[in-house]
Amino acid sequence: MNWIYILSGIYIILLILVCLRIIFETYSSNKALAYLFFCIFVPAIGILFYLAFGINNWQKKLYIKKGDENDKMLDEIKKDILQYGESIVEVRNTAVDDESELAKMLLRELQSPLTRHNSVKLLLNGEEKFSELLKCLGEAKHHIHMEYYIYEQDEIGSAIIELLIKKANEGVQVRFIYDDFGSPAIKKKVEKRMRESGIEIFPFSKVHFYLLANRINYRNHRKIVIIDGKTGFTGGINVCDKYINNKPKQLYWRDTHLRIDGPGVYYLQYIFVTDWNFCCGKIIKCESIYFNKDAATKEDVYVQIAASGPDSIQPSILFSVLEAIYLAKKEILITTPYFIPGDAVVYALRIAALGGLSVKLLVPGKCDSKLVNAASKAHYKDLLIAGVEIYLYNRGFVHAKTLVTDGTLSMIGTANMDHRSFELNFEVNAIIYDAPFAEKMRKVFFEDLQFTEKLNAEEWYKRSFLTQLPEKLARLLSPSL
After folding, report:
1. Residue 14 sits in which domain range?
2. What is the pLDDT of residues 322-355, one digit of tens each?
3. Distances (CA, A) of 342 to 83, 403, 479
4. Do 336 and 190 sit in the same domain of this protein?
5. Whether residue 257 is found in the same domain as residue 276
6. How far apart (Å, rounded) are the C-alpha atoms in residues 147 and 472?
7. CA distances from 240 to 281, 396, 421 (A)
8. Are residues 167 and 270 in the same domain?
9. pLDDT per position as a tens digit, 388-440
10. Residues marked as catalytic
11. CA 71, CA 364: separation in Å to the nearest integer?
């Protein structure tokens, strides 16, 4: 019996210490309440959950370490970017006039320039993305830089690796960053062979114990390819056969990717270089072949890159999404596979809809996580009341992360509409200020609506208490999902 009292006392002291840590170190009040609720009402498991998922020491160390490893050369690159971006922003152009506040915010916060004279190509699903990527990789002359969250050693993954080995043997510099949690197949099967062929390959934030969720939380979710400093790819598509819809019985994957040619690749290259310096410590020199500001194309599309992660002072991708919503005057079209956005985005969408804007949200009918699906549904009622139209995609799984406003502004990237993408993971989005391209995005969005079920507001309100209860409980945990 004495041991029971002793253990109970130790547990109570531990619980108090954990609760004090949550109160002092958790910036978001909603997130703090969620952790407190879980720790107090779910004995032991709640504390273990917080210790695994909630402690930010790794984030602080990561920021300090990654910031320290950005040497003076990259500081000079930032200065150059700032001067270039300011010169473009100050030139009035109808393509960016309505969203100039967004462009200026990213320039000031990230030193991410608004670039012009780009050409962009919309790539739908793996069928279009991989054929385009293979073609460009085959044309590489000087270097190939690749960075992926998930890279599978399947048919398409093997084809790309064989091409990379071929290019390395031809004398092309090939550098490859993979996320150690998202791409275990690389580490186990082909990393040694790639190194032997001359490819420089490193994991981002190596995971030694997969149960240490600090390492699992702060993952590199980016998908970036840069070829010869003038062609870049980014978007939602990882390297995996499931993104290619070429088998009759497989689940249909709907996703969106982007090819950029021109100065817009400059900042993508900067992101890769800083990630590279952090994960392997080998400095890429500041040479024009890598940072090619003169890679202008005959087209004149304005492109800007938004990036954020645990090393960011501000959640820049979240801010860019909010700014785009606030600047919209007529229409907001959002596609996302994971919708747990937090109050700021929900309020912005409700305000927009109540102000008379057409706001449409496209999400999966069935998510690959029941808990995430339940937490998402908990937000729908407030949005429906405000007039937001919500569509559930039922052709397969929609994995695209896109936003289109007023038929002039488009976002395509790696960031989902959730806390994990806005604060915990390294992400990157491309912003395109171009009406013709936005019109293509609008067309794709409305084509996707043909495979959806539109939620009926009245029927949604009438759902039973027992149906809504799991969703409300999941919402309490949403800051931790």
Report:
1. 2-55
2. 999 999 999 999 999 999 988 899 999 999 999 9
3. 35, 17, 7
4. no
5. yes
6. 37
7. 28, 16, 21
8. yes
9. 999 999 999 999 999 999 999 999 999 999 988 998 899 999 999 999 999 99
10. 221, 223, 228, 399, 401, 406
11. 43
